[in-house]
Write a structure and sequence with these properties.
- With about 270 residues, the chain is of the alpha/beta class.
- It has one domain: TIM Barrel (Alpha-Beta Barrel).
- Helices cover about 40% and strands about 15% of the residues.
- It contains nine helices and eight strands.
- Strands 1-2-3-4-5-6-7-8 form an eight-stranded parallel beta sheet.
- The longest helix has 22 residues.
- The protein is globular, with a radius of gyration of 17 Å.
- The mean pLDDT is about 95.
Length: about 270
């Protein structure tokens, strides 16, 4: 019924021996498709291994907070896996201006490396005819979003992007959609204080957004503060459906169709 368009099954917060149960709990909740994203070269193989499970696919990329640990040829190493049928997109990549630069780096140099890696990820995606998953985060304002969108604008004719865990305004969501991209809503949409996110989700047309958990992070209500997992896609979907005046079945169908098309999945889980 539902697809969790963004989770991290290779996270250290998910012990490997627990993964089968996590996937089964998701299926029991009606979440029959999972997109698990790599965030570094270190967890790439683990994600590929998990994606051997029916209904699970993976994306490969270097998270912006890990670019200082990645070798300069990381893009070439990722490119070697783009033809693997388990790989359905490039990411998680993007720009993160929320966290301070790591030791030995200043903010300007660290951000430039993030921007370089983001462009390289777009180049990989374009060459492989895959789409891309983008992370942006700011301590205040939306500079990382603006910078990432400017880079996306250079590639939007050949690559579609989803800006995941979207918490910005409808005006910014429209900027993404106008380039042919998507946004994705997660557990934050259920938080009592997240008025702007809900306003954006209400206005975003069907076919322009997906649903995600970003698990093990950002669990929705009533699980906020606990470890998130793909089964909780259901709670976010229920909240979004109520907000938008849709049935859960209607929202599940159009987000499933959107997710299947974006990640070019061979079949739609149901």
């Amino acid at each position: 019924m539902l697809i969790d368009s963004h989770c991290h099954l290779a996270s250290h917060r998910f012990p490997s021996e627990e993964i089968p149960d996590i996937i089964e709990r998701a299926k029991a909740a009606g979440v029959t498709g999972l997109i698990s994203l790599a965030t570094s070269l270190d967890d790439l193989q683990a994600n590929l291994d998990i994606a051997k499970t029916p209904g699970v696919h993976t994306c490969i990329g270097i998270h912006p907070c890990d670019v200082h640990n990645a070798p300069d040829d990381a893009a070439d190493r990722l490119a070697a896996f783009t033809s693997d049928p388990r790989v359905c997109a490039i990411g998680e990549t993007g720009l993160d201006y929320y966290h301070a630069a790591p030791d030995g780096w200043d903010d300007e140099t660290f951000r430039k490396r993030q921007q370089t890696f983001l462009r390289q990820h777009f180049e990989i995606a374009a060459a492989a005819k895959l789409n891309i998953v983008i992370h942006t985060r700011d301590l205040s304002g939306h500079a990382s979003f603006d910078d990432a969108l400017a880079i996306y604008q250079q590639y939007h004719q050949s690559v579609r992007a989803v800006f995941h865990c979207f918490i910005s305004s409808w005006e910014n969501a429209k900027r993404v959609i106008d380039l042919g991209g998507l946004v994705s809503f997660g557990g934050v949409a259920t938080f009592k204080s997240a008025t702007q996110v809900r306003e954006t989700a209400y206005q975003t047309p069907a076919g322009s957004f997906m649903v995600e958990t970003d698990s093990p992070y950002l669990a929705p209500e009533p699980f906020r503060g606990k470890r998130n997992e793909p089964a909780y896609t259901l709670q976010t979907a229920q909240r979004l459906a109520t907000l938008r005046g849709e049935t859960l079945e209607t929202l599940a169908k159009h987000t499933r169709d959107t997710t299947t098309a974006f990640f070019r999945l061979s079949s739609t889980p149901s």
